[in-house]
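Hi both,

Apologies for the delay on this - the queue was longer than expected. I finally got the Palmitoyl-CoA-bound model through. Below you'll find the protein sequence and the ligand SMILES exactly as submitted, and right after that the structure tokens for the full complex including the ligand.
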Amino acid sequence: MSAATGSDSGVGAALTPPPDVASPVRHPDAPAPGTLLGAHYDQCFGCGEGQLHGLHLEARAGEGVTVTAEFTVRPAHQGAPGLAHGGVLALALDETLGSLNWLLRVIAVTGRLETDFVRPVPVGATLHLEARCTGVAGRKIYGSAVGRIGGSDGPVAVRADSVFIEVKLEHFTKNGRPQEIKAALADPDQVKVARAFEVNP
Ligand SMILES: CCCCCCCCCCCCCCCC(=O)SCCNC(=O)CCNC(=O)[C@H](O)C(C)(C)COP(=O)(O)OP(=O)(O)OC[C@H]1O[C@@H](n2cnc3c(N)ncnc32)[C@H](O)[C@@H]1OP(=O)(O)O
């Protein structure tokens, strides 16, 4: 893996899956549709409950390899006065798309994320997100997501296409800080993470 060396592998790679891409396969032990997925890490800025100003995004398993998620824009998430920061909205999309990997039982990190900002999202609004895996090609996991204001049939505010790259546990142990890794592994709420590591030794 060339992650720590700053390789430009994948730079400019396509966000749409190649025509011969394999259909994503929902893992037999994936949580049932409707199940709240919970945080993958308490300190994650996207989903962790331990992050005061984080998004506290809540994702649920959908049918196949799809997820739905919600997050409510709070004052700490502003860019322009009264409006969500675009980076925060990209984070919500990233986090939702990343949740798909739990249904595949794969550990993966974002390689590319292309976001369309369609309309502003005010503070107090709840963003309803839907993401689906559109294909898997080797270690590359393609996804697409949309976020709507106020409800699952509300107006589209943001869209994204992504490529996540499957990694091994050493991606985190080599590149992360030992104290956080130790804390994450010691957290009893991280059982899901431990299970993920078992299928991705
Ligand atoms: C123990 C503690 C607990 C931890 C608990 C963990 C729980 C699990 C949670 C995970 C966290 C989620 C959080 C939300 C999701 C983030 O936000 S993740 C954070 C943001 N992303 C990153 O930091 C990733 C940084 N980049 C990297 O580390 C490396 O560039 C990567 C992505 C691992 C790739 O490096 P590499 O493994 O050396 O890749 P390489 O072998 O060169 O390429 C493999 C394939 O991928 C393609 N590729 C590589 N890079 C890219 C790219 N950027 N774009 C497109 N394609 C690419 C290549 O073209 C190649 O394709 P093929 O030739 O096979 O067709």
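Main takeaway for now: The chain has one domain: 20-198.

I'll put the files on the shared drive as well.

H.
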